[in-house]
Specification:
- By secondary structure, the chain is of the alpha/beta class.
- It has 10 helices and 9 strands.
- Helix 1 packs antiparallel against helix 6.
- The longest helix has 18 residues.
Length: 293
Amino acid sequence: MNKPGEPIAISAPLARRLAPQLCRRDPVSGEDCSWYHGLWQDLRTLGLAASPAYQADFFWGAFKSLAKRRRLRLLISGAADYSILAHVLWGGHENGLEADVTVIDLCDTPLFFNQWFAEQVGYKITTVREDILAYQPEELFDVICSHSFLGQFPPQRRTELVGKWSQLLAPTGTALTVNRVRPGGTPHEVRFSQEEARTFCLTVEQRMRESRSWPEAEAAEVLARARIYAQRLRIHAISPVEFTQLFLSAGFRIDALSTIVSSDPRNSDVSGPAIPRDSQHACIVATKARSGE
């Protein structure tokens, strides 16, 4: 099957330029998240970011299972860029579904790029800059979709998050979620080791040089952000058992559960959080159970 088109060659340099202006500044540290949002699409171009593109077949199949509904109110919960939206619109279109899409995030940069992508493909969406845990929409949603969002939360907050998704869903609403899972023995907080960070930055530099697609000044900017990314990125590990239990405990019925190995053959010598190197991503379709079920 065809995969959704994503204009990364256009949006990546735009993200480099706009992220410092748009990214949310932490009120305590004064730092913003442009080291992440200004870099993510460059990492995707270089094969160093585990994006929804690795689970495209899951999204297509999930929307096929929802096709009988024909029209949905859909919430994208957290976004690094517009890739989830691209897969939502593609999966819906391929299966005869239309969706009224809302994207929620704390940062204006991914919201800008979701709006930008929607305009590129002639689709109207709503964006909301707010903490998902505080969000109170006027209407409930039929579907909530996320990718690698649970890993941004420590265990005690993950339970709260999935419970919030349940509150935001209409009766028999559905959660479509993808997240990397790691064995239960993995340290709770996953970060780059010093050696992984060094190899990662060298790989970014080498692949940009080989590609020759980055002007010298912009390549230096990307590399500087990559160094910060390797220092700051933190992922909270989730085991396969915990991933499933989160939804069962929140009153969901699991309709489909699969594991997809995300890998890029170029990454045999590169490892670290969010690197697509034989990483296991759990993909779930879970329906909010009716009261009493």
